[in-house]
Design a protein that fits this description.
Blueprint lengths: L2 H34 L2 H35 L7 H20 L1 H7 L6 H28 L6
Helix pairs in contact: 1-2, 1-5, 3-5, 4-5
Length: 148
């Protein structure tokens, strides 16, 4: 693969990582606002949450495709330890993302729900997801030698 094309692919990969992780930090202060939000505000905050989760999913698609192309065209093989660990953590994060946010966001719209408990669960889910993504980022950037 042409060196310029490879560099562009790396750039696309990095941008998709930023778009996957960055918006979740914005959601942390939004959790506090959910506690005291009225109906109209509540819908706007919940729509923001849903948008961020959708954005993360779609940028994740770009991330995976660009990652596959980088492995195919780069110096690494699929048996590289840091790559295997990245794929394992990615699988965990996909499973987690599918179950972590949508059910909790739906409960906010239900009557007689304890918003404090839901907000705490939502905040915990955000941090778990950020940590999973940061672990993947560490594997991809640090490329540690985990086994020979």
């Amino acid at each position: 693969m042409d060196f310029l094309l490879y560099r562009i692919l790396i750039y696309i990969h990095v941008i998709s990582v930023i778009v996957s992780i960055g918006p979740f930090f914005i959601l942390l202060p939004l959790v506090k606002k959910l506690l005291h939000a009225k109906d109209t505000e509540m819908r706007a905050y919940l729509d923001t949450f849903r948008f961020v989760v959708r954005l993360a999913k779609h940028s994740g698609h770009v991330l995976v495709v660009s990652g596959i192309l980088l492995v195919i065209s780069g110096p690494w093989t699929w048996s590289t330890p840091w790559l295997i660990m990245t794929l394992i953590v990615m699988g965990c994060s996909l499973f987690f993302l599918a179950r972590a946010f949508s059910p909790k966001l739906r409960k906010f719209e239900e009557q007689d729900q304890n918003k404090e408990v839901l907000a705490a669960k939502l905040k915990r889910s955000i941090w778990i997801y950020i940590i999973l993504l940061m672990i993947m980022l560490w594997f991809m950037v640090g490329k540690p030698t985990l086994w020979a």
